[in-house]
Structures are given as C-alpha cells and as structure tokens.
Design a protein that fits this description.
Layout: E1 2-6, H1 14-22, E2 26-30, E3 39-42, H2 48-58, H3 60-70, E4 74-77, H4 79-82, E5 85-88, E6 94-95, E7 100-106, E8 115-120, E9 122-123, E10 138-143, E11 145-148, E12 155-160, E13 164-171, E14 174-177, H5 185-197
Parallel strand pairs: 1-2, 1-3, 3-4, 4-14, 5-7
Antiparallel strand pairs: 5-6, 7-11, 8-10, 9-12, 12-13, 13-14
Length: 200
C-alpha cells in the first residue's frame, strides 16, 4: 500500500507518517507541486488562511484537485479537512479549495474553546472509511472552528460540542476528518486502514 502525505508546512507530519507506516504503508512525503497517484493525505494544524495560501503558492492546490478529479483516494485531516470547503472565517475571510460546499466558522458556545479531547463520533450514513468502527466510537479532536452549511449528501458523521457539527465528509474519492484518526487509538487506526484499502 502506497500513500503520499502532503507537507504544507502546517503541522507535525510525524504522527500521521508513523501511523501509516505501522499499518504497513509505503509512505512518501510530497512537497511543492509534486503529483501523486494512489492515496493522498493532507494533514495540518494552524490557521485556515495561511494554510490555503501556502497550498496555492506551492501549486499543491492544483495537485489535490487533479488527484480528486482522477478519482484517486484523498483524505484531509483537521486543518486539511477545513481547507477543503469553500470559505473560512478564521482571522478574516478566506477562499478555500471548494472541493466541498460550506464554510468553516468558529464555535458559538459557552464551552471552552478550543474543543480538545475525546468525543463521540456519530456516523450519519454507512461509508467504507467507517467499516468495523462501531456505532458511536470515540475520536480525538483539537479545533476551534468547524464546518457549516455542509451538503447533506456529503456529511458522513457528526459530533457535538455545545452544538452538533459535521466532522467527516466524503464524496466520490475525496474525504475529510475534522478529528485526528492518527491520535484516536485503535479506532483511528482502523479508519486509516480503511482509507488505505479504499477503492472508490
């Protein structure tokens, strides 16, 4: 199993690379506008605008779009999930990659922000990425912003933090997780294994 991990200079790649290697994957880290066939992952931690601007400056935005248009499996994680949407309102208004409909906005809750720690994942429909994970698994989150206005057909799971929010999406060969599967124990590893075996 081969998987390419996009290095967008936003976030530590070590944990996702280690998780994929532990699953037996042949991991390649890609930078700039390197094209990649097979499975592609965009991780990330940080600010929406800076991340998406860096993707455009490096040409990686077009690589990701071409990858998805070819029908090759793609997974965005955390900030890599957020930039897949049309817009983000963190530190101003920013245009995302537009692969999924919706905007990424700050939580409106009296609970502590950021949302950090384990929370229940509620799958809203069956999807190969969730095979074998059970009805209400716990996964690990670290975020202050979440997706709004997501198309109903794209949402595959929600969670709740003062309000219900979509935390996983998928359409055709593209998918995204707001949570960190690489930090979510056996449940997260099973999802990553499912991704590596996914043939949309």
């Amino acid at each position: 199993m081969k998987v390419a991990i996009v290095d967008n200079l936003f976030g530590n790649l070590r944990s996702i690379c280690s998780a994929m290697t532990a699953l037996g994957a042949d991991v390649q880290v890609v930078r700039d506008a390197e094209s990649s066939s097979g499975h592609l992952v965009l991780p990330g931690v940080g600010a929406f605008g800076a991340s998406v601007n860096n993707l455009r400056a490096s040409g990686q935005d077009e690589v990701i779009r071409a990858h998805v248009e070819r029908g090759d499996p793609f997974l965005g994680i955390c900030l890599g999930f957020q930039v897949l949407f049309e817009r983000g309102s963190e530190l101003g208004q920013h245009t995302g990659l537009g692969i999924f409909e919706g905007s990424v906005d700050r939580f409106q809750t009296d609970l502590h922000i950021p949302h950090v720690g384990w929370n229940v994942l509620n799958p809203t429909r069956e999807h190969p990425l969730f095979d074998g994970v059970g009805a209400a698994p716990h996964v690990y989150f670290v975020h202050s912003y979440h997706a709004n206005g997501v198309a109903a057909d794209d949402a595959i799971a929600t969670s709740d933090y003062g309000e219900e929010f979509v935390c996983a999406v998928a359409r055709d060969s593209a998918a995204g997780f707001q949570f960190h599967p690489e930090k979510s124990g056996a449940t997260g590893l099973r999802m990553l294994k499912n991704f590596l075996e996914w043939r949309p």
